[in-house]
């Protein structure tokens, strides 16, 4: 199996010696879950002879069964990818669990080691190398003259019988050392004391206080050490340069590694730790397997100018990569984003990419976003369920033909029984036979919903292999993050819908409610509650508004309805603001619980919206026109929501001045105006004041 071979390949990129005990166990868990024998884990663990214990893997393997949420092979894949592995299969054939990380952005990854050009180093010839000059140059770059320098030339034998550096000296300044080295350039021992040429010599790259060599003695968190002995020297050299690390000094250790003294310029120890963690993370993700034992700021590094086991410890280069930490961090952010490069229009003019096919004919394309907005009692959730059924069954929705395919309905509001029964009721109300129910999945999350930024990746993981052409999220107030009136916060919130669309290649559909107060006289773009981002973000905005109708109109629409059904019958008008299609004619609907149906009789076409009423009035500021019916319609519409009818609202409805609205109502014997409030006379004496 290809996935099996790839998992073993991934294992080759993970060094057991560089893992914590917990990480080592994770590898064992992952191998066991993927069906490998204990011998594979045992053989791999032998690469860490310091911790390897014969029989330990076999014993632990037997106890791995029965974990409620087992670690899988995906964990091994991620560990290998973090260390530079790039599988040719791109994750297509390895089985992962729903909660494993899949489709993860390759943030901070831009180096492909397979295409990396090696950069060999050349050890200086004896006649062309001056030990004192090497160290003087190193000290001059890293230290101020008055700063104390820690260095080690003496060694001792540790418990394992190996030679290790002592604490060394820390009481001399860089200036003092440089002056002495200038006088005795050929002999480091004269200045520093003799060292063992089999072991070499060491130096601390951050300045000290002259009182000790621990982290607390560091006076400036200026540099960090990047070192790896897991790769070929030429490859290390190439990677350090490819990563543009802000290296002050690059030193050959005389052994298996280069020591990059990297500028981090941290103001505090806490910030130093954060910056080093980020630095090591970037290195690891791009295949440079950093020795993490070198993280502390008082760490020893190899001293240029010394000899170790017959090889010179020398400066390979200085001041390479970016000039400082801030410049490097900005560069990392710029090269590791997932934004596409600009493209020339001339290159695609003759070969335009095909447009995404329509999901809802004339309204929405596949892979795009739709927002349905409306007031309470408009049946927004029912409309979304109708849309799910229309897509699953391949039938029209509110008169619009729909593509057929798999759809996921994310239920955040109803309990599971209510939601499932509602789907059945809507199927029955629509008169649609459930022939393709296998196209419709429901994810019930009432009581378990998360903010959208947390829900989106979980949704994507579960939906990645389902081939949905649409995901419907209902309602969004359950997953809303931030202040809905903040454009900045709502832009970030809406970006999560983009992520769902992009990662799943499907349309994302959701609904929102109208703002409070009368919606008449407002453009559809301005009716949604909260920031205008809601209305301007989606590719298609569908707006429902309730129409004021009398009982006679309702009776014509539903002649066989009983009193209760008639009372709940709502007249609606659907309007659209579209990015990809021309504007469609408004669609008049009846919400006849539990479904919406088209106004076949045409009664609602005669009910004018605020815009049409304005047109009927002629919009002349000074002309009388045929105002009788227009006044009645204006008053009926503005009073439909139970609010007072004011001159200000009438002026907004018509799009005219307050003065013109007053003149129009004052000219009629049917209406009175008192302190800016308009009332119907209904046979009472007319009153006009203010």
Topology:
Elements: H1 2-12, H2 21-33, H3 38-45, H4 56-61, H5 73-82, H6 131-142, E1 148-152, E2 155-157, E3 163-165, E4 169-173, H7 174-183, H8 188-192, E5 202-204, E6 221-227, H9 233-242, E7 247-252, E8 258-266, H10 269-285, E9 300-302, E10 307-308, E11 311-312, E12 315-320, H11 325-335, H12 345-348, E13 358-360, E14 364-365, E15 369-374, H13 380-393, E16 406-411, H14 416-430, E17 440-444, H15 452-463, E18 468-474, H16 487-504, E19 507-513, H17 533-536, E20 540-546, H18 551-557, H19 563-568, E21 570-578, E22 587-592, E23 595-598, H20 610-616, H21 627-639, E24 645-646, H22 647-654, H23 658-666, E25 671-674, E26 677-680, E27 688-689
Parallel strand pairs: 15-19, 15-20, 16-17, 16-18, 18-19, 25-27
Antiparallel strand pairs: 1-4, 1-5, 2-3, 5-9, 6-8, 7-8, 7-12, 10-11, 13-14, 20-21, 21-22, 22-23, 24-26, 25-26
Helix pairs in contact: 1-5, 2-3, 2-5, 6-7, 13-14, 15-16, 20-21, 22-23
